[in-house]
Amino acid sequence: MNLCYIDKRQLEAFMRIHLSFFFFFHFFLIEMLEGKPVVQETDMPDDLQSHVMELAYQALDLHEVSDCQSIAHYIKQKFDEAYRPAWHCVVGKDFGSCITHLCGSLIFFRVEMMEFLVFKDGKDCTESKEEAVGMLQKSQKADP
Question: What InterPro entries would the database entry show (predicted)?
């Protein structure tokens, strides 16, 4: 039978290396789980950025991470209440987008592995509906 003996110094060195790796890995995981937001694109004022990120954390606390629709709905509803409609919110891990937004209303950021796209679309809903009806009426009058 082959036995391997290590002396006390070797054991202490081994433990120091592995403990330092353990602490590094532990703090790395905590940092990842804490989920500091990473803004990828924005033209939104700082106060709105702070507010939307705060709402994102609240939504993540209130809903399952896999329930992207509820998370997006929560943020959209709160932004509509605070800043008038029509805000849009897309939440997910992998999505594409092609949008037109009101200047000063766009933010695209990441928390952990979740991405958030929040933006305001033109005028409020009632004005948009009235505009759409007006355009429809004009086009119907133009067609003989």
Answer: DLC_sf, Dynein_light_chain_typ-1/2
